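Pair request: fold both.
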Amino acid sequence: MKVCQNCGNQVEDSVIFCTNCGVEIKSAEQQAPQSAQPVMQQAPQQNAQQGAPVFVNAQQAPYQQPIVYNDPKDHTNEFDANDIADNKLFGAACYLFEIFGIVIALLVNTPYTRFHAKNAIRYDIALLLCFIPCIIPLLGWLVTGIACLVLFVIKIIAIVWSLQGKAKELPIISDIGFLK
């Protein structure tokens, strides 16, 4: 007697298709190479309701190489950990105190503070460029206000990143070509 792999019904050896579900029943020679594939077995029917399919001998997919995302704008790994730990406040001072903070950071003269000083200079140039549309009444004032609001958010992000010890290029500002 053969057993249907789909529904579990027992059928005679000479039968090719299951009399209960109609699935082709394969002989023992044909079943051997497929033993590595997941076999689906349904629970017995109760009150004419079909049970949920149950997978028997289901194998987990092989593991893949983990995909590591490397942010090209994150330069934190290029700096010494001690340099970052010692100069977080000087990096934040570049953004908080504008030109005065940039001068202080450049006086400290470490690679981490120079990075944030360069970013702060880019920020200041972008802020000055935002005031150009202010010449146009009404619409220019609206554009200037929105641009300054966006730059204010970028400034807060820069301060937080510098206090966290991250050396990332500023969003939007780093994409402007002539500020590189």
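--- second member of the pair ---
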Amino acid sequence: MATNTKKTAQRQGFKTGEYIVYPAHGVGQITAIEEQNVAGHSLELLVIVFEQDKMTLRVPVAKIASVGMRKLGDPTAVKKALETVRGRPRVKRTMWSRRAQEYEAKINSGDLNSISEVVRDLYRSESQPEQSYSERQLYEAALDRMAREIAAVNKCSETEAIKQIEQNLAKSPSRVKAAEAAAADSDDDEDSEVAA
């Protein structure tokens, strides 16, 4: 199996050094375009490195479209995703196993807006009831994917991207009302203690 590496090249609009989104793994960087001979056939492969996962993936150039690989979203897409996060959570009354499958499919779709819907729907503030373990796992996976893409687009750290997402989650109209109600309840409790 012979390998021939081209350091700077471009294939189907993707070039070495640029960040991309691979649906099942999130944000990765194309480090090279290799040519390998497999079973007598020459294949051109994009070498994609996912640093956080310590993983390298080789994708045949011919399969780029079918695997759903795409370029990073632009600042407009990030803004739209953050607006989605500020929206009202949609909680379906179906069985958890079915909802979990839907959330998993949205996370693995690689679509920033779909991932932001999962983050919005599974977010729990301190005043809300505790999440189950599987809910928390899905939420963290979605938050991680969303933060990685926002960090890559805005050229900031993942921590800053998570702060930005959480600030937008707190701006949700239903969460603002809940926070105000909780603050009013604590004020009432303090007033009754003072009166006693």
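Observation on the second member. The radius of gyration is 22 Å.
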